[in-house]
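Q: Got a minute? One more chain.
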Amino acid sequence: MDFCYNSRMDDRNAIEIAKEAVKQIAKPVQDFIGAVLGKPANELGEWISDGIRGKRFETQLKIFTKAKQLTEDSGLEPSAINLKVLVPLLENGSLEDDESIIDMWAHLLANASTSDDVRASYIAILKELEPAEAKIMQYIYNEFVKKYGNDFAPTNEYAGSMKGAVIRELFGLSNQDFEQSIDNLYRLRLLAPTASRLEFLDNKEIPFAHYSKMTLGVTYLGYYFARACNKGP
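A: Always. Here it is, folded:
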């Protein structure tokens, strides 16, 4: 679909064009969008005209369509999403052009429409990820599923750890790209330096961090964020 917006167009014309755009969307997708927004299908035209233009609308529609399929596959019914989550999710997701990250936005939308597992912080984090960093978190989540199954729940301060050298080699990252990617994942608290307890100290419960990137600790936040962005409802 190719929609062009003229800033001088009056609101009435904008709404009419948006209504025509809605007619081109498959009815099941219209119903899903309406359910998530908490709006009847006949009001979607006004919503589109007010907040979505051109390419951003196409990307949002792609996210809605993927999320609809995910909820359909799960057999769960979507419901209206809290605006604190919905608005930034749609706004930030519409700016993305990398397909793997668009898939992550769709998973967030699907999970938010069927559960309370999506935190507003997940949206703030996802918009900060470069494609390589997103793929690293997808890989980490998939490795957790292989090792622990779909319903793994961490029991200590780390969900687990990954070898930095393996990730660097797997994604063919230069030293500069690897260092910057991991530093950003540290900044977002998705990964963290691992820590150990020293037996010779009186208080053995105090952990000491290791700042080498040879072993990457996966935080609680990192694991549950990755799960929300990759696991279906």
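A: The mean pLDDT is 82.
Q: Perfect, thanks.
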